[in-house]
Amino acid sequence: MSVPATAFRSDALSGAFTDWMRTRRWFRATASDPALTRVGVWVLPDPKHQVAIEVHLVHDATTDVLYQVPLTARTAPLLGGEDALVEQLPDGVSVYDGPHDPAFARALLTMILTGGRAGDVEPAEGGSPAPSDGRTSAVGRHGHVDTAVRVVGSHVLRGEQSNTSIIIETVHPNGKPATPVICKVFRALSPGDNPDVVIQSALSDAGSRFVPRTIGHVEGAWADPATASRVEGSLAFAQEFIPDVEDAWRVALRAAEHGESFRDAASALGEATAAIHVELARLFDTRHASASDVEAVLTSMRTRAAQAFADAPALAGERDAVAAVQRAAEDAAWPELQRIHGDYHLGQVLAVPGRGWVVLDFEGEPLRPIAERSEPDLALRDVAGMLRSFDYVAGSISSAEQATAEQSAAARAWADEARAAFLEGYAARSGLDLRAQQVLLDALELDKALYEVSYEAQNRPTWLPIPATAVRTLAHRAR
């Protein structure tokens, strides 16, 4: 029995839907009740005509965030879909969180690989999918990949917060396994091309071995909730999925726990990071850091510092020392600004046997507006982020309940060696003299540590000593 494409679309969002939204990790909850309004829908056809697939664009007026919410409707329950159930309609139709439904995964990847188009009504058999009002629509784009594959299975990647990623298993027409795909569905939407799509696609198309191969993406258009004007942005991004590998955080933490040197691995990671930066500087425009650029960065640093001191009053005594580091950075010679990763740490890197380090998630800090994340920035910001990540490895060992002084000292020595090797590898591949950039690098690492102070104070207070110690160290480092 087929389900009409509008089987679960009504003028008002139900209470069950609102309650379900509140429990999602990607929903930016507030103390007040959300004020949800549907501002658009685009429809994906199900080739088997058994499932209704709609992607709803839902605006929360309390936070001014626009969410992308794929939903599927079935007359028979989805096998194993109990945890993905959104609501049960009076007519017996079950509505599910789309990414958990294989029908949605199949339709989404098909749209990407075929360049399919979708609007807010489903086309008739063999017809052209055009939106009825021309305001809500989506189109698939594919890269230089084999498009003749068939979906045979899918599941959602666990543990994500900002977005939802679907692992999709595919086969060739002859039935042999094809490269698995990971498709990230962006949950909070903003006008503009998502940096993850733009940067990683450019690196992949240029042949970089340090990023997964790009499969394609979905771009869409909708009515802006604030202005009602038509805007465009990224909806989903598909890339090669690399199975049975660990991220660099797990690899590094295990090495530190066992007292194994990470020198060679850290040096190789520094080289990979530099290679990506060199390639990004070639592929995208760079620019000289103007006075307004410097002022914008310093303003951001001061704002972050003020927030950290408010969140961790015990650090208030470091206020003057932190300000001195920031002033020194303001007076330093700044390198060219360029496109960067923007949220770089060990968790964003995979250790792939036979291939080396592979870097993921060029989206930048998800809570920052896309326009800001798409601006050229300091490549040293990525370097500082990775330095902080090595420090967190040591801190996580030292903060363990039964950690001894000897274990803490060994972890600190491990991190110091890894940090030095990372910088050596970066300098060797980039050709940059990082010693000449030390003042600016210190300020960026301090800025990252201050951000971590606020995060830990608000979310993981037992981890607060890790960045707090770094703030004290960096604020008083000899220069």
Give a brief description.
The protein has helices at 15-22, 102-114, 195-205, 248-257, 263-283, 291-311, 319-331, 370-373, 379-398, 405-430, 438-459, 465-475, and strands spanning 36-44, 52-60, 65-74, 85-88, 94-97, 117-118, 137-142, 150-156, 163-171, 181-186, 188-189, 214-223, 230-240, 246-247, 349-352, 356-359. With 479 residues, the protein is α+β, with helices and mostly antiparallel strands.
Give the topology, please.
Blueprint: H1 15-22, E1 36-44, E2 52-60, E3 65-74, E4 85-88, E5 94-97, H2 102-114, E6 117-118, E7 137-142, E8 150-156, E9 163-171, E10 181-186, E11 188-189, H3 195-205, E12 214-223, E13 230-240, E14 246-247, H4 248-257, H5 263-283, H6 291-311, H7 319-331, E15 349-352, E16 356-359, H8 370-373, H9 379-398, H10 405-430, H11 438-459, H12 465-475
Antiparallel strand pairs: 1-2, 2-3, 3-5, 3-11, 4-5, 6-7, 7-12, 8-9, 9-10, 10-13, 12-13, 14-15, 15-16
Helix pairs in contact: 4-9, 5-10, 6-7, 6-11, 7-11, 9-10, 9-11, 9-12, 11-12
The protein's oligomeric status is: single chain
> Helical amount among residues, as a percent range?
25-40%
> How are the strands of the biggest sheet laid out side by side?
6-7-12-13-10-9-8
Largest sheet: 7 strands, antiparallel
Mean pLDDT across all amino acids: 91
Structure summary, number of beta strands = 16
Roughly how many Å apart are the termini? 73 Å
Strand percentage lies at 15-25%
State the secondary-structure class: alpha+beta
Unreliable spans are: 123-132
Shape: globular
User: What's the tally of helices?
Assistant: 12
Rg over CA atoms, rounded to whole Å, is 24 Å
Query: What order do the helices and strands follow?
Result: HEEEEEHEEEEEEHEEEHHHHEEHHHHH
